[in-house]
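Key idea: predict the complex, not the pieces.
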Amino acid sequence: MKAMNETRCEVLVLGIGNLLWADEGFGVRCAEKLAAEWQLPESVTVMDGGTQGLYLLPYVQAARRLIVFDAIDYGLPPGTMKRVEGDQVPRFMGAKKMSLHQTGFQEVIAASSLTGQLPEQLLLIGVQPEELDDYGGSLRPVVKARLAEAVAMAVAQLRDWGFAIEPRESKVGAGDTALTMAAYEAGRPSAEAASRIGDARFLRA
Amino acid sequence: MGAYETQGFKLDNSGKRVVVDPICRIEGHLRVEVNLDKDNVIRNAVSTGTMWRGLEVILKGRDPRDAWAFTERICGVCTGTHALTSVRAVEDALSIKIPENANTIRNIMQLNLYVHDHLVHFYHLHALDWVDVVSALKADPKKTSELAQSISDWPLSSPGYFRDLQNRLKKFIESGQLGPFANAYWGNPAYKLPPEANLMAVAHYLEALDFQKEIVKVHTIFGGKNPHPNWLVGGVPCAINVHDTGAVGAINMERLNLVKSIIDRSKEFVEKVYIPDLLAIASFYKGWLYGGGLSSQAIMSYGDIPERANDYTTGNLLLPRGAIIGGKLDKIHEVDLKDPEQIQEFVSHSWYKYADESKGLHPFDGVTDPNYKPEGPNFKGTRTRIENLDESAKYSWIKAPRWRGNAMEVGPLSRMVLGYLQPKQFPMIKDTIDGVLKKLDVPLTALFSTLGRTAARGIETLYCADLQVKQFDKLVAAIKAGDTATANVEKWEPSTWPKEAKGAGFTEAPRGALGHWIKIKDTKIDNYQCVVPTTWNGSPRDAKGQIGAYEASLMNTPLAKADEPLEILRTLHSFDPCLACSTHVMSPDGQEMTSVKVR
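Result:
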């Protein structure tokens, strides 16, 4: 993924979430996959936004169009994909919480709007997560199986907006090497080596 | 446990219980339960982390040179400072010396983080605990302009400017998407500012929103990318090439000039907007000096910003290191992260198991053996749905760290008090604090409060903005003298490492003392422990029944309304709890994520 400066950008594709918390990493993994497999023009920036919340504001404000990948709790069966557009996006970002840092991306959208710099077009590509409370874990199979579809939705949207984009002939690395999905999954210590019995999923009745 | 006394506080859990959950999402969600007496005064406070995590679970067996990238993801706010702490721990373990310029650049990045984080905290996390946005709609723009001009010569202060802003705000609120202003207790009697001060503060809230994005560019320049900059064991991952104008990534004069301009403008914004606002807001809350908690008796800082590279001794640190205990301000104790007698974590009230829970363990020998058992005679609920915790039993996923057996407060207030007490080494801290106290006409003891914590953060921002200029000048002088080294890769290859090694890395994160302890065995991570600022401040009770800093800070605070815990939020926010580190799943219907229950 390339570094982006804050000058005007045609399209920002942002993957958000915390890759240390299982399906919460969906957005970041989508961005990783898109950057690794697709040849994108200079005017399209793909960014791993992590859980940076307000730190992402300048990039969102600078973007004319915004695509966001994220895990979203729609109350649907795990792995269900949902595409939300335009005015509908803020409605999905209205969760009532305590603070800006905590609320994260919803507030970035609100702050962009408040400062009159909301991107003209918004697309939210979300998946219903299955498991979030598995620290150090990766995507669950039912969610991982949706990565290709999520990336395809973004590609279709980019083409729809008139960007000529083509698949790369060979994949390229993207993001922090140690954190790419394969390295992250392969390097996870076994449950015996590093106890996981405190995970909330094991505590459930 | 009933009523008892500890650290000068009388705890009594007999009154009605108020539950606020979650306050934020740390390395575990934060939940608070308090008991109120008949006058709605807090007589017992219980703070708990409700979610488990253990970094060792992720890092064991991985390459120590990669640890920073993982630790950077622990928290959405302290990314850079976790990464810095991690590379310092690895460098300490492997005795890696970094070049002078690498140290200076790390200092600039760390100071930059302070200025950014404190500014964002004040305006975007904390201000709305003091500023009533809805009241701002009633302000007279002309009077607002007069107020603004009376406290600062900041140019954006005309009646027209405030009128436009008020209209924009009105439109925004009327549109129904309150966004950042959605969840608050507007109109609560605990808000004390007149409408004009509220409008001025909201204007600066928006200006800060715009300005903060300038500040972080420094991280992109030195860290190569944002929002997750690169770090490097042995130095910094950026080359210096002043004669080159076109090289991608290298630090050249053009980039240095950009850094200089950002640093200068940051300093100006702090001097002309942040500090005047802080003083103006504080002047209306001088009578509200609750929330001091442990700050007058037990504070600690690891110190940070080494003047010379590779010297982490107290005398070389530009942010003070030390500990005060028992309220004895005339005795500053040395703090040593590797002394097994000093920093220890206890679990008698935490959901972990030790062989002997009357004793604490130093992080090098840290054990993370979960033992989730919410229980006790006053516990209500089930394992997965807690209604009321019982603080006489285990009640938190946060361990209880202690310094020589004492619960400590960490953060800007601790650092600034330690600086104030050593005026020879830190004259600017002493002078700034004296100036603020004089301006507000309050005694030194006023510092030991929620407002004091908030003021200390502002004072520290000013100090750091100034230090940043000095560190930048130092970097430029070194480069002009021909020193362009930024990394030492002598011990990059694991074949050069000893079979076993251990080390500790520290920083002062914006919100307090941060330590990482690493054990390396056969070139892989064998154990990795972090004790984060929020573990210190959010600590539960220990075997002696001593309460943690959050708990202490809530004691004896009156609530204007029991079902609107504005004062609780105000005090906890003053610590800048580390947030956004775990999940932030969006929900479709704006469903309430925070609940307040009065029982």
